[in-house]
């Protein structure tokens, strides 16, 4: 695709800056990736920069070109993602770069979107030098859920739960709020805000009546709220807090995790934060649809109560679902101490003998 050329040190520094501005806080997540662009003069100095601020706003390249004006002619564009090659709410960035007279484009990640990709070829055909793959790993990490969703055709799923040391998410009398600490709950809101869907089952709505919104450190609603999704066939009381006006809510009347994710993907949703109860979690695990696990472990023992996950049909230790730990963080101090574990399935769940049939939950969610 791109020409056999290497990036310069100045372009590498510019890519780091492009990645930094692409990650600017407050950008709504969802159907569009986070993208940054830096324009360089021939001597390696910065001419302009820009980043994408969300669906319907100018793309990073367009923002940088508008800032640069005539200074864009003969410049090098350093972009975290291959310039798009299609017309959506905005025009194709590849054509904009050509019209601006840019002489060279360096980008990190090839666009996985089949509708938008191909900008590199358009640039090459116009006689522009193109270098790809510079800090590709960092770009993929920046948009990990979006990249996954475009490559696999479904949203990335993070399952979050809180548990005691003995694997209980609630005491025998049903009380559960004190299992996780205040710092853990604040951290949960941070993670919620990084997703574009929060998903629970109908049983969680009926029993726990969650509002399922993102709140800040002082417990006020955040400006950006992910889509609240309830999954399950049964009717629900419209007076439940999840149906209030603080965020948009969707009721998916299905018990099939595959169907639920397909519908959400069709709506442009790329990252699902699974917060349902043990039965819903087990259904997604058995379907091989959990990509990341985040658990907050409290240093306490309950001895009885609700399990953090439902029956997975595992009869022997050799069939256990093993998780690879990617991060261990202690949150809080004293009585408010919890340990956050971030993990991914070490072996794809669908490869486990007990999951090959992809059974559906036998209990309505």
UniProtKB/TrEMBL annotation:
InterPro entries attached here? APOBEC/CMP_deaminase_Zn-bd, CMP_dCMP_dom, Cytidine_deaminase-like, DHFR-like_dom_sf, Eubact_RibD, RibDG_C, Riboflavin_Biosynth_HTPR
The residues the record assigns to binding substrate are: 176, 192, 212, 215, 275
Q: Name one GO biological process term.
A: riboflavin biosynthetic process
Fetch the NCBIfam families from UniProt: eubact_ribD (TIGR00326)
Protein name, UniProt field: Riboflavin biosynthesis protein RibD
Q: Which PROSITE patterns match?
A: CYT_DCMP_DEAMINASES_1, CYT_DCMP_DEAMINASES_2
Q: Which SUPFAM superfamilies match?
A: Cytidine deaminase-like, Dihydrofolate reductase-like
Give the enzyme's EC designation: 3.5.4.26, 1.1.1.193
Q: Which UniProt keywords apply?
A: Hydrolase, Metal-binding, Multifunctional enzyme, NADP, Oxidoreductase, Riboflavin biosynthesis, Zinc
Task: Give the record's pathway.
Answer: Cofactor biosynthesis; riboflavin biosynthesis; 5-amino-6-(D-ribitylamino)uracil from GTP: step 2/4; Cofactor biosynthesis; riboflavin biosynthesis; 5-amino-6-(D-ribitylamino)uracil from GTP: step 3/4
Give me the residues that bind NADP(+), please. Answer: 162, 178, 204, 208, 277-283
Q: Which residues form the active site?
A: 61 (proton donor)
Looking up Pfam families in the UniProt record yields: dCMP_cyt_deam_1, RibD_C
Q: Which residues bind Zn(2+)?
A: 59, 84, 93
Regarding protein family, the annotation reads:
In the C-terminal section; belongs to the HTP reductase family. In the N-terminal section; belongs to the cytidine and deoxycytidylate deaminase family.
Q: Which residues form the CMP/dCMP-type deaminase domain?
A: 9-131
**What organism does the record attribute this protein to?**
Nocardioides daedukensis
Give the required cofactors.
Answer: Zn(2+)
Cofactor annotation remark:
Binds 1 zinc ion.
Q: Which domain of life is it from?
A: Bacteria
- Role played: Converts 2,5-diamino-6-(ribosylamino)-4(3h)-pyrimidinone 5'-phosphate into 5-amino-6-(ribosylamino)-2,4(1h,3h)-pyrimidinedione 5'-phosphate.
- What is catalyzed by this enzyme? 5-amino-6-(5-phospho-D-ribitylamino)uracil + NADP(+) = 5-amino-6-(5-phospho-D-ribosylamino)uracil + NADPH + H(+); 2,5-diamino-6-hydroxy-4-(5-phosphoribosylamino)-pyrimidine + H2O + H(+) = 5-amino-6-(5-phospho-D-ribosylamino)uracil + NH4(+)
Organism classification, top ranks? Bacteria, Bacillati, Actinomycetota, Actinomycetes, Propionibacteriales
GO molecular function terms noted in the UniProt entry: 5-amino-6-(5-phosphoribosylamino)uracil reductase activity; diaminohydroxyphosphoribosylaminopyrimidine deaminase activity; zinc ion binding
């Amino acid at each position: 695709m791109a020409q056999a050329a290497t990036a310069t040190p100045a372009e590498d520094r510019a890519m780091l800056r492009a990645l930094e501005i692409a990650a600017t806080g407050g950008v709504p997540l969802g159907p569009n990736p986070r993208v940054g662009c830096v324009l360089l003069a021939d001597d390696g100095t910065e001419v302009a920069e820009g980043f994408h601020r969300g669906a319907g706003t100018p793309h990073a390249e367009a923002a940088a070109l508008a800032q640069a004006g005539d200074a864009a002619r003969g410049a090098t564009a350093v972009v975290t993602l291959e310039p798009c090659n299609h017309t959506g709410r905005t025009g194709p960035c590849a054509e904009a770069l050509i019209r601006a007279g840019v002489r060279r484009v360096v980008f990190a990640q090839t666009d996985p979107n089949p509708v938008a990709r191909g900008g590199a070829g358009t640039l090459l055909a116009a006689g522009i030098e193109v270098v790809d793959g510079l800090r590709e790993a960092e770009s993929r990490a920046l948009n990990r859920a979006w990249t996954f969703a475009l490559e696999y055709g479904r949203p990335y799923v993070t399952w979050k739960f809180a548990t005691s040391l003995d694997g209980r998410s609630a005491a025998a009398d049903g009380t559960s709020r004190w299992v996780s600490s205040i710092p853990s709950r604040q951290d949960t809101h941070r993670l919620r805000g990084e997703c574009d869907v929060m998903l629970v089952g109908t049983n969680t709505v009926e029993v726990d009546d969650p509002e399922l919104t993102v709140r800040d450190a002082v417990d006020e609603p955040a400006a950006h709220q992910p889509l609240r999704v309830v999954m399950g066939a049964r009717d629900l009381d419209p007076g439940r807090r999840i149906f209030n006006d603080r965020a948009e809510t969707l009721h998916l009347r299905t018990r099939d995790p595959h169907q639920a994710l397909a519908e959400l993907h069709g709506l442009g949703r790329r990252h699902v934060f699974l917060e349902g109860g043990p039965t819903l979690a087990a259904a997604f695990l058995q379907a091989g649809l959990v990509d990341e696990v985040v658990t907050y472990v409290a240093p306490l023992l309950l001895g009885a109560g609700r399990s953090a996950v439902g029956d997975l049909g595992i009869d022997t230790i050799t069939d256990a679902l093993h998780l690879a730990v990617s991060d261990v963080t202690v949150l809080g101090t004293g009585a408010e101490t919890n340990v956050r574990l971030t993990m991914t399935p070490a072996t794809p769940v669908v490869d486990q003998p007990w999951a090959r049939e992809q059974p559906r939950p036998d209990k309505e969610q």
